[in-house]
Amino acid sequence: MNRPYLETLPERPSVRETVDVILEARDLHKSFEGPAEEIQVIRGIDLKVPRGKIIAIVGRSGTGKSTLLHLLGGLQRPSEGSVLFEGVDFYSLSEEKRAHLRNEKLGFVFQFYHLLPELSALENVVLPAMILRRHAFSSVKKEAAALLEELDLGDREDHHPNELSGGEQQRVAIARALMNRPDIVLCDEPTGNLDSKTGEGILRLMVMLNETLKTTFLIVTHAEGVAKIASKVFAIQDGRLEEKQ
Ligand SMILES: Nc1ncnc2c1ncn2[C@@H]1O[C@H](COP(=O)(O)OP(=O)(O)O)[C@@H](O)[C@H]1O
Ligand SMILES: [Mg+2]
Questions:
Q1: How many CA atoms lie within 13 A of 235 on its CB side?
Q2: pLDDT of residue 93 exceeding 90
């Protein structure tokens, strides 16, 4: 199989060994205003994500997986508790600093992709790198094209999201999350819209990136099968985590 993206990866990744917990949650709580009363979705979660590992959180629909991932990814402020990214309290940073840190070090694959509809697949993937590196489109285009090729989307570069299937949009979203070679990727149901063969391919890519670049992955999913690539698996239920393996 053609592996254009993997060929661009450095052989010896530079890994900072000093901070071995890349992301940490301390007594996280999140409630939402309901029609009658508050809905407590996250009810006291502590979690340490070790650098260089693949961690999975498994739970049924509605158990708060997406909410937890948004809290951990610096996208939604917890009601109580804190999120530490490499030891830095994420929500004590200004909005601007947090956004910069996110773009530089953290990739996020949204459950519903959040691709920009007016941009092509290639432009969606290139955008985070243009913002971070302040590079022109032409200089980052090749890398983005290689990523799309890796995800079997080489012939979809110029398609807009509304011209792509759910599974294809999901893979574009994955390519976008990987574009800045993040230290950690948070994935919300990354195989949710893929047939089993394509889903397996995505899982293999994650394992490969984990092995070659030491990229950390935190995956939330209702699909138990995804847990097989994880070194540690948690179950989420009633707003709390329980270690499974
Ligand atoms: N912005 C919000 N306002 C109110 N309720 C919300 C909001 N976001 C999520 N919820 C509620 O939180 C619960 C968990 O949602 P979610 O995190 O999406 O679960 P999962 O990803 O596990 O399916 C659901 O009951 C959902 O309705
Ligand atoms: Mg969800």
A1: 7
A2: yes
Q: What percent of the chain has pLDDT over 70?
A: 94
**pLDDT tens column, 19-48:** 599 999 999 999 999 899 999 999 999 999
The pTM score is 0.90
pLDDT tens-place string over residues 213-224:
899 999 999 998
The CATH number given to 4-243 is 3.40.50.300
Ligand nearest to the CA of 63: 1
Kindly give the distance from the C-alpha atom of residue 66 to the centroid of ligand 2, in angstroms, as a whole number: 4
Two structure tokens written together for 65 = 């997986």
In short, whether 215's Cβ falls inside 6 Å of ligand 1 is no
Q: To which residue do tokens 């995956």 refer?
A: 219
Q: Using a 6 Å cutoff on CB, does residue 64 contact ligand 1?
A: yes
- Ligand 1 atom at minimal distance to the Cα of residue 59: 22
Of 218, 210, 192, 245, residue with least CA distance to 83: 218
Give the integer Cα–Cα distance in Å for 244 and 241: 9
Select from 30, 32, 220 the residue to mutate for testing ligand 1; criterion: most ligand atoms less than 8 Å from CB.
Answer: 32
Closest listed residue to residue 236, CA positions, set 220, 217, 223, 212: 220
For residue 62, report the distance from its CA to the centre of ligand 1, in Å: 6
CA of 42 from ligand 1 middle (Å) equals: 10
